[in-house]
Amino acid sequence: MARVALTPEAAEVLRRLRADHGELMFHQSGGCCDGSAPMCYPAGEFRTGSSDVHLGDLAVDDGFEIGVWMSAAQFEYWSHTHLTIDVVPGRGSGFSLEAPLGVRFLVRSRLLDDGEL
Fold first, then answer.
1. In whole angstroms, how far apart are CA 22 and each of 5, 25, 37, 47, 64?
2. pLDDT tens-digit profile of 51-101?
3. 2-60 per-position pLDDT tens digit
4. DSSP labels for the chain?
5. Are 3 and 29 in contact (CB under 8 A)?
6. Interior/surface letters 20-39, b for 16+ CB within 10 angstroms, e for the rest
7. How far apart are CA 15 and CA 73, in angstroms?
8. For residue 68, how far is the Cα from the chain centroid?
9. What is the four-CA torsion angle of 71, 75, 78, 84, rounded to 10 degrees?
């Protein structure tokens, strides 16, 4: 079961960011800076480790996938949800790559149903 998904609008922004920055990754922030927002970085720039959970890889295009992580502590709160990364107009206050484009990524969530749990 996929825990994360991507809207077509977010995928389009990711294509643009990849053209400028190369391979990418997401880390769901835990409340600092931009609230609780998916932060997009060049792949490997945000160091993940044993205290992070790999939620999955989002297929943007053939051969272009982007990994999504969040801290294990935060995952305890979100473990019962499915997350969809979307994009909206406006600038976030974090360090995510999309900020100069005048948009920001956000997460839309829904509870997992019994079959998904």
1. 21, 10, 21, 17, 10
2. 999 999 999 987 899 999 999 989 998 899 999 999 999 987 678 999 999
3. 899 999 999 999 999 999 999 999 999 776 655 678 999 999 999 999 999 999 999 99
4. --SEEE-HHHHHHHHHHHHHH-SEEEEE--SSSSSS-EEEEETTTSPP-TTEEEEEEEEEETTEEEEEEEEHHHHHHHTTEEEEEEEEES--SS--TTGGGTEEEEEEEEE--TTT-
5. no
6. eeeebbbbbbeeeebebbbb
7. 30
8. 5
9. 50
Q: How far apart are CA 91 and CA 103, in angstroms?
A: 5
Torsion of CA 46, 58, 34, 52, to 10 degrees: -50
CA distance 101 to 117: 37
Residue 22 is encoded by which pair of tokens?
A: 């190369």
